[in-house]
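Subject: Sanity check before I submit

Could someone independently write out the structure tokens for this chain? I want to compare against mine line by line before I put it in a report. The sequence has 89 residues.
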Amino acid sequence: MKYEITQQGVRVEAIGAHGGHRVRLSTVAHSPLGLWPVSVHVRGSESEDEVAVDVPDRHHASATDALDFGYHCAVLWIDARDDRLTRRD
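---
Independent answer below. Compare away.
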């Protein structure tokens, strides 16, 4: 499992991890319009602040689709950041 759903109610939150970073995802639990936006935050360690990850606007068919897309965006962001930090030109 990529992430674990930690809270349900008006919002659905999920916590996951990738490459030593914590990933927090959030979306709405129920959407009368059938649209589930997603917000993504990443933290490298407990002493670091969370960073909001820019996520392209997309129309997701369900909360699960929104969380999966958000996690994928977080993985790409983390991998790109790690690549910049380790690359020596």
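---
OP: Matches mine. For the report I'm noting this point. The first strand starts at residue 3 and ends at 7.
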